[in-house]
Amino acid sequence: MVRWSRFNIASIVFGFAFLYLPIVLLVIYSFNESRLVTVWTGFSTKWYGTLLTNQALLDAAWVTLRVGLLSASASTVLGTLAALSLSRYPDFRGRVLFSGMIYAPLVMPEVITGLSMLLLFVAIGIDRGFWTVTLAHTTFTMCFVAVVVQSRLQSFDRSIEEAAMDLGATPVATFFQVTLPIILPAVLSGWVLAFTLSLDDLVIASFTSGPGATTLPMRIYSQVRLGVTPEINAICTILIGVVACGTLIAALATRRRELQRQKDERAAFAESMVRTVDPPPAAAGG
Amino acid sequence: MKSLGIFRRSFAPWADPNAKPFISFRNVTKRFGDFTAVDNLSLDIFTREFFALLGGSGCGKSTLLRMLAGFEQPTSGEITLDGQSLAGIPPYRRPVNMMFQSYALFPHMTVEKNIAFGLKQDGMPKTEIAERVAQMLKLVKLESFAGRKPHQLSGGQRQRVALARSLAKRPKVLLLDEPLGALDKKLREETQFELMDLQYELGLTFVVVTHDQEEAMTMSDRIAVMSQGRVIQVATPAEIYEAPNSRFVAEFIGDVNMMEGRVALENGHSVLKTEDGVSVPLPEPLAEGREVALAVRPEKLKVSRAAPPEGANLYAVRGEIWDIAYFGDMTVFHVKLPSGKIVKASSLNATRGVEDPFGYDEQIWVSFEPQAGVVLKG
């Protein structure tokens, strides 16, 4: 057991302060009564109330939500397919190139991704708006899904799929009845990741959206340029709350499942030990 | 070859020239890149046979099984099942089922759902599925575990679920890839006999892949000993043990003493003269001076203080006891012959003690009957 030395405590406090102090400040000031962001005059929730009447912000939130849901779903399908083909056919020609290309958007500066999308949309003459943002988000979140799903597939026992086919399941039936249910947790966390990325993307959205399709980060950014209002603090606090809740629920669900599995395995093991010591008549009669 | 009398077998379709093989490999070759896993192999397996493919890792036995299941396609040659070619038929349309080494149970399904999986794919009515699943659970004695998931089962129980699942569709042939490999020794021995009984009762053809010679000897009607993608010998366990066709088979199965020697001519007959001066007549004339070996199993060698009497028709060599290994049920004497070669002679400890036991460094005689050895050319 490691003792809590002063150095340990100090580094933890400093580390967490570094990470969370700005967020805590933002949350605190969202409950400020004053219109001036930096002057505390008293506790109030009125800015949450005025939020509901700010139609522009609400519209932007609605756009963001729709873009997020659509692009996350599309990129989950595409990313899962990419991960499957990458891990299933390890010897196909150009595999290294293909996998490198899948991962490139992870490290590509968003400005470049956004700009290249913009050029493409202009070149083929698509009016920028809701659909172009959705497309762009699908493109850049897809690689994240592929990475998450591929790491799950690496520990996947292929003989399970072979067993399914051996028992008469066609490749399609095998995928939907066996492969997908087993990798579903990874696919879902890929979806959540894609959704969150889409939710808080500003750069790519700015390049690819058009009139009538302003996302929430874009709206917040443009308002902040005119000065930070407590309203902005309030909506940011709500966003933080949503993301934190989502992460917490996902973490708790994973932990519970893991604990249950460990418990089951211990039980099965204990049972098998008992059986070895004292075989029941049914087993002995074979 | 004359059949060897160890015990009577009423089931021997391979000895019947009119019997039609059920599974037939015809000049099958399988290459993975430069590596030849199966090399121009031909093999016949008959209905209701318990057939074992035995060999070390990388000998091609698993590839052979996977080609039968349809997971691999032969590079050349043909596999037929019940007279029909299996070429181009995908695994999900073959009337064979496989039990995987890792069991490959579906982790997200209960025991019941695992067993029902294959039946559901065939579109069997629900009531019939339920009936068949119950039957299978009873067969493998897991009735009370129907609702459990694989991770809630012990290794032995998982093995049974895998077996029940692969038998549920009543396949014509059951393929078993190292079926007992993951079980501990005691459970493995029990399960061997259960598998044999099951195969007999259901009247199925079993093809089992194993690297465990004892397992293959116990369970199977016939064994194919494989090495480097080829079948070295196909025969009953007794023939494989008592009449191996090569040094490889003799050394692979059980313990054996190889008495090296050369072919010589005595009174116009070819004989094998071993290094220690034993002359054994050869069944067929061979070129003089050719190096051959006499393979004698340890239990066929007899250790005695006195030289065997004249006219006893025994081959005898003088030797010295070099090492003694006591196993409880038997004792193995390592005897050093005049040539410096050490042979093993095992004797069954049929009584609880011997009045005047052998000791280390004692000069003794090693003797064996003329039929005890097999002459191996290659």
From TrEMBL, chain A:
An example Pfam family from this entry, by short name, is: BPD_transp_1
Q: Where in the cell is it found?
A: Cell membrane
Annotated ABC transmembrane type-1 domain residues: 61-250
Q: Which CDD domains match?
A: TM_PBP2 (cd06261)
Q: Which domain of life is it from?
A: Bacteria
Q: Note the PROSITE patterns from the entry.
A: ABC_TM1 (PS50928)
Q: From the record, give the transmembrane residue ranges.
A: 7-31, 60-84, 96-124, 130-149, 170-193, 232-253
Q: Which GO terms describe its cellular component?
A: plasma membrane
Matching InterPro entries, A to Z?
Bact_Polyamine_Transport, MetI-like, MetI-like_sf
Record keywords: Transport included?
A: yes
Query: Which family does the record assign?
Result: Belongs to the binding-protein-dependent transport system permease family. CysTW subfamily.
- Name of this protein: Putrescine ABC transporter permease PotI
UniProtKB/TrEMBL annotation, chain B:
Q: Which PROSITE patterns match?
A: ABC_TRANSPORTER_1 (PS00211), ABC_TRANSPORTER_2 (PS50893)
Instruction: Enumerate the InterPro entries for this protein.
Output: AAA+_ATPase, ABC_SmlMolc_Importer, ABC_transporter-like_ATP-bd, ABC_transporter-like_CS, Mo/tungstate-bd_C_term_dom, P-loop_NTPase, PotA-like, PotA_ATP-bd
The terms describing its cellular component in GO are: ATP-binding cassette (ABC) transporter complex
Q: Which Pfam families match?
A: ABC_tran, TOBE_2
Q: What is its EC number?
A: 7.6.2.11
The record places domain ABC transporter at: 23-253
Task: Name one molecular function that GO assigns to this entry.
Answer: ABC-type putrescine transporter activity
Keywords from the UniProt entry: ATP-binding, Cell inner membrane, Cell membrane, Membrane, Nucleotide-binding, Translocase, Transport
As recorded in UniProt, coiled-coil segments are none
Q: Has keyword Transmembrane?
A: no
Q: Which reaction does it catalyse?
A: ATP + H2O + polyamine-[polyamine-binding protein]Side 1 = ADP + phosphate + polyamineSide 2 + [polyamine-binding protein]Side 1
Keyword Glycosyltransferase in the entry? The reply is: no
Q: What does this protein do?
A: Part of the ABC transporter complex PotABCD involved in spermidine/putrescine import. Responsible for energy coupling to the transport system.
Oligomeric form and interacting partners: The complex is composed of two ATP-binding proteins (PotA), two transmembrane proteins (PotB and PotC) and a solute-binding protein (PotD).
The UniProt similarity line reads: Belongs to the ABC transporter superfamily. Spermidine/putrescine importer (TC 3.A.1.11.1) family.
Name of this protein: Spermidine/putrescine import ATP-binding protein PotA
Gene of this entry? potA
